[in-house]
Amino acid sequence: MPRRPSRIAPRRLRTPGRLAGFLKSASICVLVAGLLSPLTQATAVAATASNDYCGGQCSDITPPGENGNATLAQILLNQAFGTQPSHAEDQLGPYADLATGYSTLTDSKINTFFNDASFGVSSDQVASSEKPAGRTDVTIVRDKKAGIPHITGTTRYGTEFGAGYAAAEDRLWLMDVFRHVGRGQLTTFAGGAPSNQGLEQEFYRSAPYTEADLQAQIDNAVATNGARGKLALDDANAYLAGINSYIDASDSGRYFPGEYVLTGHKDSITNAGTIDHFKITDLVALASVVGSLFGSGGGGEVNNALSLIAAQSKYGVEEGTKVWESFRERNDPEAVLTVHNGESFPYASKPADPQGEALPDAGSVTQEPLVHDRTGSAATAGSTGASATAAATTLSSAKRGMSNALVVSGKYTASGHPVAVFGPQTGYFAPQLLMLQEIQGPGISARGASFAGLSMYVELGRGQDYSWSATTSGQDIIDTYAVELCQDDYHYLYHGTCTAMDKVEQANSWKPTTADGTAAGSYTMRVWRTKYGPVEYRATVGGKKVAYTTLRSSYMHEADSIIGFQMLNDPDYVKSPQTFQSAAQHINYTFNWFYADSSHTAYYNSGNNPVRASGVDAEFPVWARAAYEWQNWDPATNTADYTAASAHPNSIDQDYYISWNNKQAKDYTTAPWGDGSVHRGNLLEDRVKKLVAAGGVTRSSLVKAMSDASLADLRAEDVLPKLLKVVNSSPVTDSTAAAAVSKLQAWVTAGAKRTETSAGSKKYADADAIRILDAWWPLLVKAEFEPGLGSDLYSAFGNDLPIDESPSAAHGPTGSHAGSSFQYGWWSYVDKDIRAVLGEPVQGPLAAKYCGGGSLNSCRDILISTLKSAAGTSASTVYPGDSLCSAGDQWCADSIVQRTLGGIKHRNISWQNRPTFQQVVEYTSHR
User: Fold this and answer.
1) Backbone phi, then psi, for 533, in 5-degree steps?
2) What are the angstrom distances between the C-alpha of 702 and each of 420, 673, 705?
3) At 488, which helix (H) or strand (E)?
4) How confident is the model at residue 14, as a pLDDT?
5) How confident is the model at residue 658 (pLDDT cuts 50, 70, 90)?
6) What is the 3-state secondary structure (H, E, C) of 174-188?
7) Are 791 and 298 in contact (CB under 8 A)?
């Protein structure tokens, strides 16, 4: 039974703005009659389950639904009547309902909110069975509940062919979008909306690859990995054959994704036009997008240098450096850790005697322009604004990590077996970036989630007797080099020789379509590449002209990680915590990997961590000279010496593990700022630590802990009580302030959650207290710190670490309505400063007391003054409204949107700070 193609894009691909008008002029009935292809129900045949040691205790979920394909007819019906294609939305309700249903959760009710992730499909649950392209060596069975493909092959080729075919059935449009994003060609393919412009610019800036570069990555991965490299190439080719077989079938059968019509690639009447076959370099383009989004920690050295210069300008070099280091919190002793047994894993620490620093002259830094020769709509303010946002996102160290994990050793569970609740937060899209699948074949036995177009292997999920997952780690694998210019602005010194920069360009143009009415426009993206990476800034250092470049250890190596994923899917390879860690070591993305089987748990931090030259401080730009290069760095291949696997944070059978993009271990410095005393990881740490202390942990109790944390306001739970302690240090006589304090205190007492009064009410309990804190936080932070730091340094630190990240804020890769919240903010600074003012002990304090200049009374006056202002700020000002929400609608402002980036729309759901794909697992036995 052929499935219908999909239509999503990563992050900000524009929702069709002209569909409503299109519907007015189109005859829906005629189109439905002409475009709905006849579907035949295949004979129900159960998929053959492989050995499954989970005992029915593995569960998973990925909203909104597995089916991401929609024909033109289905899109028109959805737009006109709200109807949904089958399995497009059936995981959204259970996912959303956990927010109000978790408090009474029991193990027996878990699959009310999750899918049963057991291997295979029972005969009474088979919805369809097909042999793609008539092959006899592979069968795709889909289950009734969620329509998930269960792929069973008798040959390796057939298995991977089936995986490719199923991927195209569920995500063809999304896969096509991704391959164009990875090449910087999104606007030409999908339309010139400013959001599309920003998206392609963001990725092209960090991965400006030519077709030859993409092919070279494949050749290298195959050549350097022996038999596994050859197997990966064979798997990829079989996978591609499956994708292309579905393209041909859906094209001739006219059930391809309707977005191809809406964007002008296909004609709905004559079927003219083509859907290009996929080729192997497309997979590398797709991988470069995923790696850049979720697995490339580091960067931000120029921003760090600018804030250090601002600090030294205000305080002098010695004191300014001390102030800067206190806000940087490289190795804060109060930071929550994933490996919490005291073991040290030194990396990227501050050198005793820094060498080779190339700090810019004050006022000399300019960003290297990416976009040139703008015409038409590309020259509008919306387009230039999107470019500025894309550049800031790419060049910052504050990568939007997302994802969390809770893993408890069997020593502390009711059954004696480990329990894990974990998954990645990849944003909310329709369809989702990740797709669910089960793959069973020679050398492959797994079920879980994979990024669309890269699903030849399960990337996050379960094997026969083990599960694994990942969170973004963010350790620094990106360095900034100051290359000295010679001859002109496009030549630089490399080991004393004046060398020409390599110019790489991508010219894009677009015109209006039904899906995207953006007026015609065009531009050229131009990147100047050096042996030290692409040029990102220009400046002077000591009066000498330089270009600042960024070099990433995974640059030109996104394809390498395929070997690690291949190992994770191989039941003959992963048999223990140690072999799991060995597999994860073959992944060069910066991830935290977690593992659970029936007896053991494990953790490993992956990524190619370069061995830096002695004395180089990873926080700042250094001179592009041989003495300061990575050890044994080869610019021709961008390879170097990397820290040993044992030097990466790793652990087996710790009492418990938590991760929410927090610090990995003692002395292991991550690139983003904010690993201090208050981090959203504390929301998990506090709850899991309490469960472990009590013992008897179950799957449902760990899900409850996760869900409870997902509704918590980090500021209210961990910082607000200290702020109120200052405010209440003397009686509050002002009636406005007193009323606000009363509401805030009541909210804290009730648990500091952002949760509905009842399921579906679309109104928050403690709504007024939430409004007050949302308005108060930016006011109090500015009043607390700006007078002491001065406006220049305050702003510079704000560029390094955003002030706030509340659920309603327009933050992260998808803007507002993104779910993930409280990753970056000044909560640790406020916490440490307020405790210092109160006279409480602070480990790793800030360099000075800032609130009220250190005076408790003055600090209290500042807090009360700003609190009164916040209390008087209307809801319509705090929540100004957008295309989805009216001004003042607090619940809607926080709500999560499944970003329908093609034609199918979904309802928004109540806010949760929770993984998008999530597993709940407890294995009962082992091979």
Assistant:
1) 100, 180
2) 8, 29, 5
3) strand 488-494
4) 33
5) very high
6) HHHHHHHHHCCCHHH
7) no
Task: Give the model's confidence band at 918: pLDDT under 50 very low, under 70 low, under 90 confident, else very high.
Answer: very high
Is 0.70 surpassed by the pTM of this model?
yes
**pLDDT single digits (tens) 390-415:** 888 777 766 665 689 999 999 999 99
For 25-53, what is each residue's pLDDT tens digit? 333 333 333 333 333 333 334 344 568 99
Query: Would the pLDDT of 17 be above 90?
Result: no
Cα distance between residue 315 and residue 333, in whole Å: 25
Q: Residue 10: pLDDT above 60? A: no
Residue 770 parent element (H or E): helix 767-789
Residue 569 phi/psi, 5-degree rounding, is -90, -5
Burial class of residue 583, CB neighbours in 10 A (0-12, 13-18, 19+): buried
Using alpha carbons only, how large is the chain's radius of gyration in Å?
27
Angle between helices 301-315 and 317-328 (to 10 degrees): 130
Give CA separation, 906 vs 154, 759, 896, in Å. 38, 18, 11
CA 301 distance to own-chain centroid: 21
Average pLDDT over residues 516-539: 97
The H-assigned helical ranges of 560-632 are 562-568, 577-584
CA-CA distances (angstroms) from residue 8 to 4, 51, 196, 491, 851?
13, 35, 12, 41, 47
Note whether 471 and 401 are within 8 A (CB): yes
> Which stretch of DSSP H or E encloses residue 540?
strand 533-541
The residue with greater pLDDT, 165 or 16, is: 165
Model pLDDT, residue 398 = 64
Alpha helices in 516-609 (DSSP H): 562-568, 577-584
- C-alpha 829/C-alpha 832 separation (Å) is 5
- What's the CA angle centered on 482, arms 478 and 486, to 5 degrees? 140
- CA gap 103, 704 in Å, rounded: 7
Beta bridge mates, 367: 537
Which of 127-131, 286-290, 535-539, 740-744 bottoms out in mean pLDDT, i.e. has the lowest?
286-290
Specify the residue for token string 């910082």.
719
CB contact burial 425-457 (16+ within 10 A = b; e otherwise): bbbbbbbbbbbbbbbbbeebbbbbbbbbbbbbb
Amino acid at 392: A
Ordered DSSP codes for 286-316:
HHHHHHHHHS-----HHHHHHHHHHHHHHH-
